[in-house]
Amino acid sequence: MKRFILSIFVLGIAVSSLATAYQGDVIYIDGERWTLMGQPVERDSALFHHLLDVLPKERRISSGNWHGYTGYWSIRDGQLYLDSIRVGFDFDKSVMATTIFPANNKDGKEIPPFLPADDMIKVFHDYYVDGEIVASWITGKVRVARGHAVKYVHQGYMRSLEYEQYYTVDQGRVTDSVSYHNRIVVNGFSIEEFKSKYRMNDSESGEKIRQLIPIPVENYPDLAGVKGFVCNVSDIQVDSLGNLLACSVKIDFKGGNDEVKSRLSQDAKTALMNIRPWKVLFIDNEFVPETNSFSFRYGLEE
In whole angstroms, what is the distance from residue 108 CA to residue 128 CA? Predict the structure, then answer.
């Protein structure tokens, strides 16, 4: 039984770690600092494990940087380079990156802020050209971003920043690039604000939800004795003016037949379609909602 509980506990940690925003590396392009949405050293598993072997065991890690290092890259003359590796992590020049934490450093020895040159040569010796590390092990897309978060998703690198570029890389050589300017185009009904504001299951929140989304529940005698139902909204589509173009709605509550739930779902969809405007984002040259799905409890008056 203890082994079973421990397994569930470890699984819970693993699953929760997937729902964490990752820090990413740092890249300099034309003298400007960008966030590299990823850690490209890890694209070569052997190279990555060689790097882990030389990183100090006392380094600080976090849920946003599980391996405790930050790579510093640059694009120069159409070539991708790895310039250095910081031991720990870097949040916009945060001093936290070089701070020694006694709990993780019982021997009291100082951790160098950057991986020493000898260790860099030891790990990346196959990629040294004229004293620089040419990232020729990398082929594929490299995404970089900077500016404020236009769309924040607390998972991996799924957030969208104001300015983003996608580079096509072939053995370290940049062959193409596409730029995007992401922004909020309509600051209307916010799904994220709605979920945050009406999270509590209380009568005041219930009343406000009913006012915002007026579903004609009085037409459903089958709901007598039902305290509320869950409204699951998915496949949300919006236009550039903040109109809700389409969505799928599914009602869930104990009891009641499928026909009642189907009619109720359609009425809920109509109420949602009547909300104007919705918050609209322009991400990667497309008009999108904050999220394409959300759920909420629709409480019924006593």
Answer: 33
